[in-house]
Write a structure and sequence with these properties.
The structure is a homodimer of 382-residue chains. Chain A has two domains: 222 residues, Alpha-Beta Barrel (TIM Barrel); 123 residues, Beta Barrel (Lyase, Ornithine Decarboxylase, Chain A, domain 1), CATH 2.40.37. Helix content of chain A is 31%, strand content 23%. Chain A has twelve helices and 18 strands. In chain A, strands 3-10-9-8-7-6-5-4 form an eight-stranded parallel beta sheet. In chain A, a hairpin with a 4-residue loop joins strand 14 and strand 15. In chain A, helix 5 runs parallel beside helix 6. Chain A is elongated and about 75 Å long. Chains A and B meet through helix 5, strand 11 and helix 10 of A and helix 5, strand 11 and helix 10 of B.
């Protein structure tokens, strides 16, 4: 629902603002990068959990979506998305929910990386007389889940699924190790490692006579720094819709690409300490401190003025539940602190990690390039 | 709504479990401690944001509640609570909401610690022909907001409010510095500092001929370690309903007092590294790392078996959005890892910070002492 421009001064804070121009630029930049690689983009919708944003990704050229919860699968399927990859290893207590979605017409694919999970899926498929579809998760960086591409387990799981009546869709990996890379060359090399190892896994399945239609890789940094997608069929990425300070710290975006911010109000000061107290604490900003391990630690977020211009030296240095403490990066306590940041004035805070900050809200206030504003719903939970 | 015992194996995870026996023991322990001090307990309901829990606090003897958002004030007033303190400094954009609640019969008190906020409240009261009620926030520990008890500003703000037609209810402080205290003696000394400085502020207001009926102090650690409440009229505390690992690390509770846990399912392993992957990542556990600065760092939470018995040496060592990595505290990789933590089996995770972990859920599954289970709604947002 589009509305006339509200007076920000009258809005109760904290609230989540989305800059639609930046959002759409981020969507098109990623789509162009993946188009140039000649493969499909399957966005991970876990960042925004917002139907209007996923619709824009689809309109820009994306094929299918990736979800991190079955709640997301429910919501996006109800909104007309039917090609969905659930990218967290499946376990028995979730299989009835997967089955219900598939019986409602959702082409929901699940992920498996163990004999136990494969056995459970096969057994459930037999019991329900249903042909599930599964991808095998491949470990390309030792960061999280997955079967190493050279492990005998890969073919063993593939055969269990295939022979057990599960449609073996192929392989997938998440190159989360990209978040630890520093610099252009390291990111390019990481993207190639992710690609080559996942393609190696696909080759091993095919050599064993098993089907492997899908070869799915991705993370926002590796998607944007990949030089080749040879052997890959689709790339997944999520946080790029909003970007955030972690991505900016990696050199994946600029701070002026960050489309999500938290609008907050100055509630007081401790002038001798140079503190500006605001009504965005960790409940609004999240507890994510993802820039702590980067060269520039942004505290709980980088502070902008009400219009969105970065105040470079001011960060949210500390946070309680509903209180943030804005401090100067070098600890200055300017004499005109109260005048520069009057009680009742508004600031915006750019998030360390957009997935975590967005999760604290159930709606976004979206500013369109034409100056109009809309409210877009967001959901959470499981 | 009470239901028969569900089979935990069939429940989709992650979910928030509450042990009602522990919850009620925690409520009664705090109420008894405050009763023994001869003052009133005004619970802070920001931890659980759950009406059935606040009802139990009231039944145990609490007077009024404290909230951290006006959303909480809305929800609890609608549920029959009418004596409410909103404990975050008031700003102009929230005054219309406060006015609407007060006109619906809610005795909502706000907090002020600056001339600017006092002026805004006076002006809004005059414009609306309404008599607001405010407390002045006092800074007892240099941790956050408030006016120092010996500052001329204290009396200036009091006079502005009083002369401007606002009901000056008194003074309040939050002794958040208690969270940094180590050991019994430090906590006792801190509680006395919190009490004496807030009482000093009340004496200065009265000496200036201003009213000061309420002298409100509190935090869970200082509430439980206070030896005296002389001059105090009420104590506020919140996290004690659930307790958490931060409180246990401070010696304020035992791990077996922690009433909130996250039920999670094993989704896979990395046996060579000793990793057990579970479906509770930071979205379920929160990003709170409150034990990081304590002698025992509990990672993203301490792991228990499905029945709730602590597995002392296992913590959630790392977390992605929907993946947790359970690791042994000393990095062991036992040969029987897969057998000890089978795929599909369930674990419980005790939270670092109950306020943050609970905030990730919109309901609690509550186990009663008689073996029955109920679902209690929880709300979030602003």
């Amino acid at each position: 629902m589009t509305e006339p421009l509200p007076d920000l001064a009258t809005l109760e804070t904290p609230l989540a603002l989305v800059d639609q121009r930046r959002l759409e630029r981020n969507i098109h930049r990623m789509q162009s990068a993946i188009d140039a690689l000649g493969v499909r983009l399957r966005p991970h919708v876990k960042t925004a959990k917002c139907v209007p944003i996923a619709v824009r990704q689809r309109e820009a050229g994306a094929h299918g979506i990736t979800v991190s919860t079955l709640k997301e699968a429910d919501e996006f399927h109800a909104a007309g998305f039917d090609d969905i990859l659930y990218a967290v290893g499946i376990v028995p207590n979730k299989i009835p929910h997967v089955l219900a979605l598939r019986r409602r017409g959702c082409r929901l694919k699940v992920v498996v990386d163990s004999v136990e999970a494969a056995d459970a899926l096969v057994a459930a498929g037999r019991a329900a007389e249903h042909r599930f579809e599964a991808l095998i998760e491949v470990d390309v960086d030792g960061q999280r889940a997955g079967v190493p591409p050279d492990s005998p387990l890969l073919v063993e799981i593939g055969r269990l699924l295939h022979d057990g009546g599960v449609e073996l869709g192929g392989v997938m990996t998440h190159g989360g190790g990209s978040y630890a890379m520093r610099g252009h060359d390291a990111l390019v090399a990481f993207a190639e490692q992710e690609r080559s190892r996942c393609v190696q896994a696909s080759a091993r399945l095919r050599e064993a006579g098993l089907p492997c239609t899908t070869v799915s890789v991705g993370s926002t940094p590796s998607a944007l720094f990949a030089h080749s997608a040879a052997g890959v069929t689709e790339i997944r990425a999520g946080v790029y819709v909003f970007h955030d300070l972690v991505m900016a710290g990696l050199g994946v975006c600029r701070t002026e690409d960050i489309a999500l911010s938290v609008l907050t109000t100055v509630i007081g000061h401790q002038p001798a300490k140079g503190w500006v107290l605001v009504d965005a604490g960790w409940m609004a900003l999240s507890r994510d401190r993802g820039t702590q391990s980067q060269p520039i630690d942004q505290g709980y977020g980088l502070v902008c003025d009400e219009a969105g211009s970065v105040l470079d030296e001011w960060i949210v240095g500390a946070a309680n539940q509903e209180h943030g403490i804005v401090t100067h990066r070098e600890g200055l306590a300017p004499a005109d602190l109260r005048q520069r940041f009057p009680v009742g004035s508004r600031l915006r805070v750019l998030p360390n990690h957009a997935c975590a900050t967005a999760a604290q809200f159930n709606r976004y206030l979206v500013s369109a390039p034409d100056g109009s504003w809309s409210t877009w719903a967001r959901f959470g939970g499981w």
